[in-house]
């Protein structure tokens, strides 16, 4: 149970929120968007320059960031603020989590504003801080990174004696295999973290739930034959078709079993690629010997990834039993569990308590439609995570990505006030 914060703590939280320098938030977000940080193996580009920008900004601001490579040329940046009364054996560590990599801009000519120009359309009052920042990564999630940095600076200014620690973890490769956060965890940086705010674009809604994801290859083997004499072979295409139908039924059973989640919606089993022949040239009068099916599975609380994989294998075995010489190979190559943070966790209470103060409305809640770096903090280290940050939920990865700078400043204020409440309560 958490007790209500004292008036003194609330006043300090308010001061921290007010101390956030809106111009600084804008400067950081714009500066980051201008650094193209797409990981592209063919072009040899990585997020290194964006990480360097973050580290330089932190150093200039008086922090001593650690820069560690999660993979060659792909650095994580980690920086701590410890209040003068901080005692590691007594006090909490709040992490702000963000990533420096962005997804590709695709064809830049399709964008109405060049994706890495960092253009800001001024707000109705003629100010940048109420304007709109355009560009790839503006919402996902350079704005969130900017807000987190500005929040820590504000907390340091108003509460130098805070009995707690804030750890900024600005990592690489969230959009890929999440090597950055995995390396952050492997190197021990998460060990003392007691709660984490994942600064992803969630329209400043409090997200305690994140969907899980599984990705599978299904390879189906039959036997080649002439198209006019299918009885001479075994069609892997029919194997794929039967599998797709069986999975549609399984999806329905799972949907009926666990129901629609209030914030995450339904679980899904989605075939995304069907390919036959699995490789080589297709020919109209040839039944190929191999077909391929890709599955993208989206999971919710109440589901178990091992059970799902076992059920898909069971379906494969029963289809094999029904058709001699037909064979299935099921390979789950990625598994990111769903997450569900305890609504009674003190971090949640802190966010909820400052929310009306900073955003001027009762707390609004949402769910994260996919995995984030927070997934691994939660799954591997049992760290309660709250995902909340500026930017429309559906804008990431689209062309003409943008973020409203007012929302970014609000996030920064919310982060600063939350840190005060959460760390003073320990
Ligand atoms: Zn992101």
Protein architecture, described:
This protein is α+β, with helices and mostly antiparallel strands. The protein is 35% helix and 23% strand. It is built from ten helices and 18 strands. It has helices at 7-19, 22-33, 48-60, 138-158, 179-186, 236-258, 305-322, 346-359, 373-381, 405-424, and strands at 66-71, 74-82, 93-99, 120-121, 132-134, 165-171, 195-198, 206-210, 212-221, 225-226, 268-275, 286-287, 290-299, 327-336, 339-340, 365-368, 385-387, 402-404. Strands 1-2-6-3-7-17 form a six-stranded mixed beta sheet, sandwiched between helices. A four-stranded antiparallel beta sheet has the order 11-13-9-14, with helices on one face. Strand 1 (66-71) and strand 2 form a beta hairpin. Helix 1 crosses helix 4 and helix 2 packs antiparallel against helix 4 (138-158). It starts with 6 loop residues before the first helix and ends with a helix. The model has no long low-confidence stretch (mean pLDDT 96). Zinc ion binds at residues 99, 140-141, 174, 200.
Summarize the structure.
The protein is an alpha+beta fold. The chain has ten helices and 18 strands. The mean pLDDT is 96.
Poorly predicted regions are none
Q: How many helical stretches?
A: 10
Helix-strand category: alpha+beta
> Order of strands across the widest beta sheet?
1-2-6-3-7-17
Q: Beta-sheet strand percentage?
A: 15-25%
- Tell me the number of strands: 18
Global outline: elongated
Oligomer: single chain
